[in-house]
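Summary for the steering committee. One of the milestones for this cycle was to obtain a three-dimensional model of the protein with iron/sulfur cluster bound, which we needed before selecting residues for the alanine scan. The sequence and ligand used are listed below.
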Amino acid sequence: MNKAVDVPLKLRESIIDLAEHVERPAPPGADTEKLVSRIKALLKQQNAVIIAHYYTEEHLQVLADETGGHVADSLSMADFGNRHPATTLVIVGVKFMGETAKILNPEKRVLMPDLDATCSLDLACPVEEFSAFCDEHPDRKVVVYANTSAAVKARADWVVTSSNAVDIVNHLKEKGEKIIFAPDKHLGHYVQQQTGADMINWQGFCVVHDEFRAQELKELKEKNPGAAVLVHPESPEDVIELADVVGSTTKLINAARDSKADTLIVATDYGIFHKMKEAAPGKKLLVAPTGGISPTCTMCAHCPWMAMNSLEKLAHVLETGANEIHVDEDIRKKAVVPIQRMLEFSNQFKQAKNKQQPVPA
Ligand code: SF4
């Protein structure tokens, strides 16, 4: 069974409206060098480390790497923050990533450059409605994507990321479980197709990936014979169908490195090109077409909320301690359970795969 729960049109419209009106900071100016040195000094002084997402601006990713921090997908960001000895984690990404870091590290200070940097998937899954819906289906395991609020995670049995969603749902299916999957409709549909699990999918959407267009992608492929198409599973089904590789941001970067093709057409946020260029130097990277060729394009393959992060804001929070993430302790205690479950599963799964052993029960 693959049923769907629609997000009300009004909520959808208000999310798009919010995304369209995000104020994007100006690109780094002449004082960048000074600002970077100040941030480096502050990181040392505050025993802080930067953990940035692949979708953030290139200069922020460079700074994270230069200062011993980490640039990664949300699973690896959580894992790194958990293992790193710094007492302050500066999460350069969007709010659910900061919350996840705090949930896993309650003793650490977690700062974010801008607390208004959110995610359309998080916004499309309000906890009251979602919780009431789960209560109507007590026979189903609740599986939520990492792109959700701490309160939604607290209501879940499992948290997943795009790196492990298929493996975790397969694992649950093998145990005979039925599933509620939230909030991304395209990822939910993809996971259901890959696993054949009995799922009800919440119909949230990513404002960036939802805009990739299949017809235009076909035309771009025809113009670039031999190009490989790399697609993130938050994209629409007809775009996924055209992919040579479907997967998480990390999987797509590895695919860019390993692909025999010289040209890669990429359907995810183009912030990923920084790490793809490092992994696959010399290859030509093309952004998959979005609604941008029509008047409906709003995001054009770059997340408006990821783009809110800047060097100025980073320096400001390190200097002032502003924008600290706090998570209610009751919620945190509940939310940490499905996150830890995911991290343990992923580690065991990786080990079992390396040893070619059966996956743990
Ligand atoms: S790219 Fe999409 S899924 Fe990622 S943070 Fe932005 S809105 Fe959310």
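Key point for the committee: The longest strand covers residues 48-53.
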